[in-house]
Amino acid sequence: MDDELPGSFGTSASLSLRLGQAIFSSASLLFMSLCVEFYNYTAFCYLVTVMGLVIPWSFTLALVDGYSVIVGCPLRQPGILLIIIIGDWVLSILSLAAACATASVIIFLLEIGGAYCPPKFCSRYQLSAAMAFLSWFLSAASSLFNLWLLPSL
Amino acid sequence: MDDELPGSFGTSASLSLRLGQAIFSSASLLFMSLCVEFYNYTAFCYLVTVMGLVIPWSFTLALVDGYSVIVGCPLRQPGILLIIIIGDWVLSILSLAAACATASVIIFLLEIGGAYCPPKFCSRYQLSAAMAFLSWFLSAASSLFNLWLLPSL
């Protein structure tokens, strides 16, 4: 596998990207869910929903990547790779949308201040949005690496 | 030019995509700027900034596309195409972020209601966010069509 593009499906770099996505999206979900008031805001509910989609997707692909690395025989069929690229692309758009929506609502809450945003909750919301941005970045990287690999199959 | 992918750089489909981007982003900017209160909210200022970047980019590329269609000799160099793809990609991410941030603040304003969101302004903000989403969609389409063309050069 030394002639492979690092980061494409079935390599150890891809495994670490997937694990990073799963960890950051779980952290984002946890930071948001630990604040019991998140369901008051549409944007926060949307973030929780999207992260709930990203976690199983990344975790499943991390398992497949781990299996490919151990067995040494990556699963390289154009159809499967195309499904993975499209899935990554859709999930990265949804993650970016959720992260931006959450961040803008947090900035707005900080601007109007007062009763809407107790400091204890606001810092958790901010951490959650930052984790969502990191998760988006890794999803977009996975999607681009796989897209780069597609024409060579 | 009948062997060209419709929508890639230098075709008439690309010209209409670029014109659509310029029209929708101008409409988004106008609907937002006509509300004199937009600078109170960070997300709305961000939307105006991003749309101010998208308008000259789309307009310049629309001119180049129009010239290519009239002359019948599209400018097809991998370096130029790569710059256009990266520019489109960055601007489409920024547009999506701005549109989501604006939409989530509008939804939040509608939820808390009252003095923060007079109906006359809120409908304009909504139209502006919708136009920004349309502009994002066309930018992403341009970027994908050009990316598809790149390996064949």
UniProtKB/TrEMBL annotation, chains A, B:
Residue stretches spanning the membrane: 12-31, 38-59, 79-110, 131-150
Tell me the organism.
Answer: Nelumbo nucifera (Sacred lotus)
State the annotated membrane topology for this chain: Multi-pass membrane protein
Oligomer and partners: Homodimer and heterodimers.
Respond yes or no to whether keyword Transcription regulation is given for this record: no
Q: From the UniProt record, report the name of the gene that encodes this protein.
A: LOC104595805
Q: What is this protein called?
A: CASP-like protein
Q: Where in the cell is it found?
A: Cell membrane
Q: Signal peptide: which range, if any?
A: none
> Is S-adenosyl-L-methionine found in the keyword set?
no
Alphabetical GO CC annotations of the entry are: membrane; plasma membrane
Family matches, as Pfam families: CASP_dom (PF04535)
Residue ranges annotated for the Casparian strip membrane protein domain, each copy included: 10-138
InterPro entries the record matches: CASP_dom, CASPL-5
Coiled-coil stretches, from where to where?
none
Q: What is its main location?
A: membrane
Q: Which UniProt keywords apply?
A: Cell membrane, Membrane, Transmembrane, Transmembrane helix
Family (UniProt): Belongs to the Casparian strip membrane proteins (CASP) family.
